[in-house]
Write a structure and sequence with these properties.
This protein has about 290 residues and is α+β, with helices and mostly antiparallel strands. It folds into 4 domains: about 1-60, Winged helix-like DNA-binding domain superfamily/Winged helix DNA-binding domain (Arc Repressor Mutant, subunit A, Orthogonal Bundle); about 65-145, Arc Repressor Mutant, subunit A, CATH 1.10.10.10; about 155-265, Arc Repressor Mutant, subunit A (Orthogonal Bundle); about 265-294, no CATH class. It has helices at about 1-10, 20-25, 30-40, 60-70, 70-85, 90-100, 100-115, 140-145, 155-175, 185-190, 195-205, 215-225, 285-294; strands spanning about 15, 45-50, 55-60, 90, 120-125, 125-135, 150, 155, 195, 230-235, 245-250. The strands form 4 sheets. The chain has a 3-stranded antiparallel sheet with strand order 1-3-2. Strands 4-6-5 form a 3-stranded antiparallel sheet. It has a 3-stranded antiparallel sheet with strand order 9-11-10, with helices on both faces. Helix 5 (about 70-85) packs across helix 7, helix 9 packs across helix 12 (about 215-225) and helix 11 packs across helix 12. Keywords: DNA-directed RNA polymerase, Nucleus, Transcription.
């Protein structure tokens, strides 16, 4: 239960009270709660504060205490890496910002790594490129490649299987929609499926060893859109609120194989006729092309 208390304190930067812990983890008995808090205090995971007569527990950052005893150069390097967040920073950029000699910087990086204050993570964008970030951070998807990479290798077979299963699910939905009463328009509307339903179907299949998000499934569905096998639209429940917009997908049965242009975002771009080298709509700022290339 100690890790749940730590997670609760981490989610609340201003700290949590005993009442908050009791509310979020009701299964903890008073004696158990007191024992866990005392253990976390003794191990240095949390700090105790008094605010308006109430005891507040705040998560303690061990790296802050560890870096206090370091020399100025280590503090500077630590601060630069901390500022980079979970996307990390390349050693060349650290050297540029710190103005330290390569030999001295390498020595400092090794010292911080040995103290488990920072870690080096390989980036999928370059096999020989390492970025540095704080030891307790989870690397950003842009660094690890997300669910589509394993040991920095792109999982082609895994993506192909997901592609096939997502398409199979949409085909089944389209087939079921044909029996819908109300004519072709009603059947077409019924065949649209939210990406969350496709995500649930894939999750229930259990074919993925990693936890996939709805955004991951939408990335797979988008490849089907670019291949001309699937159509995508937005729900019209409340288009005035961007948060309420949901992507809907339906399988299509083209009469002819899609030409090469259709497989590119340009082939399905809603503003293609306005695209040119001048103006706000241009290839250099195209969000569809950027998403497709990623």
């Amino acid at each position: 239960m100690g890790h749940r208390v730590i997670a609760l304190a981490k989610a609340n930067e201003k700290g949590v009270s005993d009442k908050d812990i009791q509310k979020e983890i009701p299964e903890l008995q008073p004696k158990q709660r007191a024992a866990i808090i005392n253990k976390l205090l003794a191990e240095g995971h949390v700090e105790l504060f008094h605010q308006n007569g109430v005891l507040i527990y705040k998560l303690k950052d061990p790296s802050r205490n560890a870096v206090k005893g370091a020399d100025n150069e280590e503090k500077v390097v630590f601060g630069i890496i901390e500022e980079a967040g979970n996307k990390g920073i390349w050693v060349r950029d650290i050297r540029y910002k710190s103005n330290l000699a390569p030999t001295q910087l390498n020595k400092i990086l090794k010292s911080l790594e040995s103290k488990k204050l920072i870690k080096a993570v390989k980036s999928v964008s370059a096999s020989k490129k390492k970025v540095y970030m704080l030891f307790n951070l989870e690397p950003d998807r842009s660094v690890t490649g997300g669910a589509w990479y394993s040991d920095h290798d792109f999982e082609t077979e895994f993506v192909d299987v997901l592609n096939q299963q997502c398409y199979r699910f949409l085909l089944q939905k389209a087939e079921m929609a044909k029996s819908c009463k109300g004519g072709p328009v009603a059947a077409r509307n019924v065949s649209y499926t939210p990406s969350s339903d496709v995500w649930k179907f894939i999750s229930d299949l259990g074919i993925s060893k990693v936890q996939l998000s709805v955004e991951d499934i939408e990335a797979i569905l988008d490849t089907l859109v670019y291949d001309g096998k699937v159509e995508r639209t937005l729900s019209v429940a409340d288009t005035s609120k961007s948060d309420s917009m949901k992507h809907l997908y339906r399988a299509t049965e083209p009469l002819l194989p899609p030409p090469g242009l259709v497989k590119m975002p340009c082939g399905i771009c809603p503003v293609m006729k306005h695209c040119s080298s001048l103006g706000s709509v241009n290839p250099r700022k195209c969000v569809y092309m950027k998403e497709w290339l990623e």
